Amino acid sequence: MSRGVRFAVFAVGAAGLGVLFVLAAFRLPDFGGRFHPYGDRAVASAIAEKTKNVVSSVNFDQRAFDTVGEELILFASALGAVVLLRTVRREREEEAGEHGYGPADVFDALRLTGYVLLPVTLLVGVYIVAHGHLSPGGGFQGGVVLGTALHLLYLTGDYPALARLRPVPAFEAGEALAAGAFVMVGLAGAGLVKTGNTLVGLEVGCAIVLVLAKFFEQALLVREEGA
């Protein structure tokens, strides 16, 4: 595709977006007015669903469809990493302890820091997921913390231990099941904020682990045949 064609496609899309933005801006309520339809509906919905607070009601009762989209984007990213970084015909994958990929020689302070922070970070991630409906945070943020917490083992220089701690097939199944379960919970109706939050955290955590696992495998274990 030539530069001119790309610019033409961009111009058409940008023009359409500009028209929609202008039309939407003209229909906004006046600044400082008393007409707040979204706020009125959000508060009424939070009271009707008996959610802990209005913010959680907006996030989980009214924006669950948006969360499904975010989960599908992350799911597609993990799937793309698995497909693009898979071992191809000219390559082979070594075992985690093969050819010197055992525990590396790192500073004792760094190793101790990784071992100490691993359980603490996991606990923080669980707390963020479990209390997302009460305080800032939630399944997405907590899932990122949980997914990255496991990789503190890599900082200790013990990649084989990390490979044993996060078996890729189990995390693949966990991500798929959590994503499907969240969609089913959303279709079942409101009132399942804690359950939805937990499923989001599980799906996000598994996806983060899968993406990083594939990058680690490609960098450390995958070799060309005969190399």
TrEMBL record:
The chain crosses the membrane at residues 7-28, 109-130, 136-155, 176-193, 199-216. Residues 110-192 form the Na+/H+ antiporter MnhB subunit-related protein domain. It is a multi-pass membrane protein. Pfam families: MnhB (PF04039). It is found in: Cell membrane. Keywords: Cell membrane, Membrane, Transmembrane, Transmembrane helix. The keyword Metal-binding does not apply. Belongs to the CPA3 antiporters (TC 2.A.63) subunit B family. This is Na+/H+ antiporter MnhB subunit-related protein domain-containing protein.
